[in-house]
Amino acid sequence: MELAVETVQMTEQQVGPPVVRARTRVRHWVLVAAATAAVIAGALAVNPAQGTVRPIRPAAPSALPAAVAPDPAKAVLPLDCGPLPTTVALSFGAVLDGRPSTVVAAHCAAENGTPPDGVFLLTPGQDGRPQIAATLVKPEEGLTVTELKLRSDGTITARGRGYSSDEIPRYAPDLTVLLSWHRQGGDWLRSRTTEPATKV
Question: Which of 139, 152, 39, 17 is nearest to 81 (CA)?
């Protein structure tokens, strides 16, 4: 606020015109206004308005029915499952950056143990098959995702179970992991918080 006030004050001191220069400045601004009007008129003549206003910003993030969102079952997810199939644990459809998208948590369909989840952002691909637009959680992180949501402000959130060390048995996660992603520029920035699993 102080910087804004100082800037205004400096401008007033510099602009404060002597009486002698007042006519020159008025004439200058009249010429500038006329030139600007001519440019706008020319632009309208070349590309007249169509009667609709289009927003410059992309559509706000919003939920999307699964029938319209990219189908995670048709995506090739980067999971190293060998001969085992993949299982989609959680997913939701949304409009993100103006595109239909799906956020999906998936893991290998192992019969034993607790296979870790990967979380991926899917968007429509050119061949009709969903493509991976971003990897939000790598399976190597060893998390089991138990909750996946989209907040009204466009933030993606997840809750999962994890391990504080390699010595912890994979059937007994000792951490609750809270994750969130928000869009900044062309990237998804992630925040992570962990707490003992007993606080769930």
Answer: 139
75 and 173 in a single domain? The answer is: yes
**How far is Cα 174 from Cα 198, in angstroms, rounded to an integer?**
8
Residue 34 sits in the same domain as residue 50: yes
pLDDT, averaged in runs of 10, over the chain (200 residues) = 25 36 46 54 52 50 80 93 94 93 95 90 91 96 96 95 92 94 92 81
The secondary structure of residue 152, as a DSSP letter, is: T
State the SS3 of 26-78: HHHHHHHHHHHHHHHHHHHHHCCCCCCCCCCCCCCCEEECCCCCCCHHHCCCC
Residue 43 lies in a domain: yes
* Full-model pTM: 0.68
How far is CA 4 from its chain centroid?
31
Q: What are phi and psi of 153, to 5 degrees?
A: -85, 5
How many domains is the chain partitioned into structurally? 2
Helical segments of 85-185, H only: none
Residue 125 region, left (φ>0) first, then alpha (ψ -120 to 50), else beta?
beta
